[in-house]
Design goal:
Number of strands: 14
Number of helices: 7
Order of helices and strands: EEEEHHEHEEEEEHEHEHEEH
Shape: globular
Distance between the termini: 8 Å
Structural class: alpha/beta
C-alpha cells in the first residue's frame, strides 16, 4: 500500500496517498500534542467524525485555504455550508458509504455525543472504515466500546485506530475488549495524553495488546509520518 499515516496527537490523523491527502478531525492550533499548525497542513479531503471542537477546530481554516472537500454526516456538512460557505462536501449518514478517488469511505456507528462549537445539533457521531487498495482501516474516533464491533470484525480489518484516553471515550481496558471483537491485524491508540485527565501509559497498553490479543500494536509519535509498508509490511 503506497503512502503514509501520521498522528498529530489527540484524534487528528492524516493519510498521504497517491491520490491526495486525507485529514481526519483537524485539531491543530489548540492541540498541545501537535507539533504543527493548521496553516502548515495540506488537505484534499477532510473527514469529520463528530462536531466537538477538539475534532473540528481547524476545519474551516484548512478547507478555505486548500479547497478540501468535507466528508461527514449531513448535519455537519450543512453547518459548514451555512456558517462558513464551504459547499464542497460529501454528506453521509450512519451506515452509508461513498467511493472517492483514494478509496471507499463508510461512515459507521459510534457511541458518543455530538454538537457543533456553537451548540448546534451535529447529527449522530461516527467513525470511518476506509478501504484503500486492498486494506481496511477503521478509525473508531470518539466512542465507547460497543458489542457490535464484532460485526466490523467480520470485515477483516487490517488496522484499527481506537481511543484509549478514558473519561470521554473508552479507556485501555475497554479497548482490549474492542480489539478482541474487531480482530484487527494491527492496532494503534488515539485520544490520549492531550491533557492530564486523559493521560495513559501507552507502553503498558501495547504490552497488554500483545499479551491479550492477536493484534500487533503500533505507537505513533505526533507529527511523524509512518509509511504504510512499515505498518503492514511490504507486499
Amino acid at each position: 500500500m503506497q503512502g503514509s499515516l501520521t498522528w498529530y496527537g489527540h484524534g487528528t490523523w492524516s493519510l498521504d496517498l497517491p491520490e491526495g491527502k486525507v485529514v481526519l478531525d483537524p485539531f491543530f492550533d489548540a492541540n498541545p500534542s501537535c507539533p504543527v499548525k493548521a496553516d502548515d497542513v495540506e488537505a484534499d479531503w477532510i473527514l469529520i467524525s463528530h462536531g466537538h471542537e477538539d475534532h473540528t477546530a481547524d476545519v474551516a481554516r484548512i478547507a478555505r485555504r486548500t479547497g478540501a472537500t468535507i466528508v461527514s454526516n449531513w448535519e455537519i456538512c450543512q453547518w459548514y455550508g451555512k456558517h462558513h460557505g464551504l459547499d464542497a462536501a460529501v454528506a453521509m449518514n450512519t451506515g452509508g458509504a461513498v467511493s472517492l478517488p483514494f478509496g471507499r469511505v463508510k461512515y459507521v456507528y459510534a457511541v458518543h455525543s455530538s454538537s457543533m462549537p456553537d451548540g448546534s445539533y451535529a447529527g449522530n457521531p461516527g467513525g470511518f472504515i476506509l478501504t484503500i487498495e486492498d486494506r481496511l482501516i477503521y478509525f473508531a474516533c470518539d466512542t465507547a466500546f460497543f458489542s457490535d464491533m464484532e460485526l466490523y470484525g467480520r470485515l477483516k480489518i487490517d488496522l484499527a485506530v481506537l481511543p484509549i484516553g478514558d473519561l470521554y471515550t473508552m479507556g485501555p481496558e475497554d479497548s482490549i475488549l474492542a480489539i478482541l471483537e474487531l480482530t484487527p491485524k494491527h492496532v494503534a491508540p488515539a485520544h490520549f495524553d492531550t491533557w492530564p485527565p486523559i493521560e495513559q501509559d501507552a507502553e503498558k497498553w501495547a504490552r497488554d495488546v500483545r499479551e491479550k490479543t492477536a493484534a500487533k500494536p503500533h505507537l505513533f509519535v505526533p507529527g511523524r509520518a509512518v509509511p504504510f509498508d512499515d505498518i503492514f509490511g511490504k507486499a
